[in-house]
Amino acid sequence: MNILRRRGWELPERLVTPEHVFLNRRAFLAAGTGIAALAVAGRARAETDPSASLYPASVNPAFKDAGRDVTPFEINSTYNNYYEFNTSKRIYEQAEALPIRPWSVVIDGEVEKPVTIAIDDLLKRMTLEERVYRHRCVEAWSMVVPWTGFALSEFVSLAKPLASAKFVRFETFNLPDVAAGQKPGLFSSMPWPYVEGVTIAEAGNELPFMVTGAYGKPLPKSMGAPLRLHLPWKYGFKSIKGIVRVSFTSERPIGFWEQLQASEYGFWANVNPEVAHPRWSQASERVLGTDEQIPTQLFNGYGEYVAALYAGMEKEPLYM
Predict the structure, then answer these.
(1) Which ranges of 150-287 does DSSP label H, i.e. alpha helix?
(2) Lower CB density within 10 Å: C or N end of the chain?
């Protein structure tokens, strides 16, 4: 007898977006010239980006299928939470003001030797690959993205942390001259720069991905160029954009949203449909680009990869 075993992320066929809907993007593009113009601008930027020749990268066969269709580029590149620019999700035009060359990443803290490395030199040292991952926002919407980048574990190996390092702290840019959301007085309660963190054990897992591209080309600025993190089993606010510093530390970092409201946005932020946000349910999610409202899965369907990281931690607020 041939027994079929579904993976945790697999969805019933009835929830898959019909092929004709996925392929028919003309109607979406006709909805506004701004989105069409963005697509053209994105292609033009890719042609001049110093890293453009690195894309598309080979697809990692372990992560070539996220269990449902990829969300169209026109949606993913124009629907973003990026408070550095604005509280609106339509920040793609403002984000174009962000200079991404030159761009360097500081690696410091409890490492053998602190270093500052230019983004293009970092790309030369990493093995780029494409991974198709699901993304679940804490606001109860989701998308699927073909990211390009390298494993966070490979970056950790490059940094050579000391045994005393128990956490990895990420920090984004702080450029109020170009990012309106960071201007003094506009959002004075915001603790800029944006900070997030994971444990060393989480960083060493095979899922965490340092993203430099998407859809077979360099990452759009609206999606976190030139370097962002993606943690597919956690709520999206953990996946920090525009990274300029990675620090290894013995103390648990306090994230941007945790500083603002710890009762709603905690350190772990693992997706769990059974634990509601204080102001809304997490039992289901709205799939961008479709009319579907689908059930949310524990760890966003990636439990087979990460559940063991949290064994024995049942009393921890794992899903806040």
Answers:
(1) 152-159, 200-203, 256-260
(2) N
d(CA 316, CA 78): 36
| pLDDT tens digits, 178-190 | 999 999 876 667 8
Exposure string of 247-261, with b = 16+ CB inside 10 Å and e = fewer, is bbbeeebbbbbbeee
Of 257, 259, 260, 261, residue with least CA distance to 234:
257
Type of residue numbered 148: T
Residues contacting 32, CB < 8 A, separation 6+? none
Residue pair 18/189 in contact by the 8 Å Cβ criterion:
no
pLDDT tens-digit series, residues 270-314: 999 999 999 999 999 999 999 999 999 999 999 999 999 999 998
SS3 235: strand
CA–CA dist 111, 197 (Å, integer): 16
Going from the N-terminus, what domains does the chain have, and what CATH number goes with each?
Answer: 13-310 (3.90.420.10)
Virtual CA dihedral for 248, 249, 253, 256, nearest 10 degrees? -40
Radius of gyration of the chain (CA): 19
Give, rounded to a whole angstrom, the gap between the first and last alpha carbons of the chain. 43
The answer to whether the peptide bond before residue 56 is cis (omega within 30 degrees of 0) is: yes
Q: How far is CA 319 from each of CA 134, 207, 314, rounded to the nearest angstrom? A: 18, 18, 10
